[in-house]
Amino acid sequence: MPTLVYLIISLINFYAFGHKCRIVRHGDQTTADCTRLKLNNVPTCLPLSLSGLDLNYNQISMIKNNAFKSFSNLTTLTMDFNNIDTINGYAFQGLKRLRWLSMKHNQLNIFSKIFDIVFKPLLRLQHLDIRYNINKTLDISKPMVYPYFGHHSFLTDLYMDIVQNPVFKLSGFENILKLNTIKFARCYLNQMTNDTLVDLPSTITAIYFHKCVSSISIVEADFLKPFTILQILNMDRVAIQLGDALKLLYPFTHTRMTSIIFKQISPHVPKPVFITRVMINYLMHICVKTLVLAESEIVGYEQNSLLALKFPDCLENVVFSGNRFSLALGPHLRELILLMRKAINVKFFDMSYNAINFNNIEYCNLDVLDNPSYAKEIYRKGCQIKSA
């Protein structure tokens, strides 16, 4: 009789949870799509062989101990856009094969000591996304110690929020020798000093800052010096002067970079920006493939500055969209002609949305343009500005 009761309960659970999730099998891989089901808990009656579980857009608020213990084959787990504010210490126990974990857009306090325990079992983790989790009630002005990541020797991508006074010294980054990409969202920095990021690993090749909402009063030239092999610098909606952003390129003079992307770089009270030779001095001496200076209030530039790059043959993609200046006005026409003669590898040049302001600027996807066959399909009529 107890066996029969257990079977009935299992069937009830299956029809309550399991049948709603969409189970997909590709070869020997089984994934469960449990998105938008208004789930309050992690479903249990799913195939034990699951390699991927998607719990996005539910109403889960707590992850209990051993919540995923039955799914020891999981390699991918996403729980974005829930209401998760509590994770028990052994929530991820048994997930020794997990490589991808995403929990962005929740209510987690990642500065809680519990996270030193929570992440510990995930020894094979390669990708961790815990962005958009800073609770509004958190006092972000105090020094905040980040979780210990030193157990994750395979970690390559780390996405998280950054507070005003981040403390990375106790996070074990010296043990993460494969970390190459770090993305900061909900950026609350109010200073970019030479020692802000000094405890992050030198292996980082790509760093992203998105929507730094605080007014940044101090910007020092060696802010990015720890990243000696940096290839990608992407700053989007950062409240600093464009001149200060360009100053951050100091450590990379006379080096090669893949991308320098400055988009919507301006203080909270925007001011017109006139590019001078001094402002552009560090950028001028960098061999860069993709250069973006977009929506940053540029109204003009000095001769022998913006177009006087020392390595124009390195350029492949150039975007000056959303500003208020002309490249070919007056004496600048000769500079432009000289640059175009030398920039023999340029594939894409974008000066759209200039002269007046636009509310919604649509950019051509540079990643698509780098893939000829894909670009031909997506932009078969050219990379055009869409009409309103």
Q: Which features characterize this protein?
A:
two-stranded parallel sheet, 388 residues, disordered N terminus, alpha/beta, 22 strands, 24% strand, Leucine-rich repeat, LRR (right-handed beta-alpha superhelix)
Provide structural commentary.
Residues 1-18 form the signal peptide. It is found in: Membrane. It is a single-pass membrane protein. It holds the Pfam family LRR_8. It comes from Mytilus coruscus. This protein has 388 residues and is α/β, with parallel strands linked by helices. It folds into two domains: 23-188, Ribonuclease Inhibitor (Leucine-rich repeat, LRR (right-handed beta-alpha superhelix)); 225-388, Leucine-rich repeat, LRR (right-handed beta-alpha superhelix), CATH 3.80.10. Helices cover 13% and strands 24% of the residues. It is built from seven helices and 22 strands. It has helices at 2-16, 114-118, 242-247, 281-284, 332-342, 366-369, 372-378; strands at residues 22-26, 29-33, 52-54, 62-63, 76-78, 86-87, 100-102, 127-129, 143-145, 157-162, 165-167, 181-187, 191-192, 206-212, 218-219, 232-238, 256-265, 273-275, 287-294, 298-301, 317-319, 348-350. The strands form five sheets. The chain has a 14-stranded mixed beta sheet with strand order 1-2-3-5-7-8-10-12-14-16-17-19-21-22, with no helix packed on it. Strand 16, helix 3 and strand 17 (256-265) form a beta-alpha-beta unit. The longest helix has 15 residues, at 2-16. The N and C termini lie far apart (68 Å). Mean pLDDT is 90; it is low at 3-18.
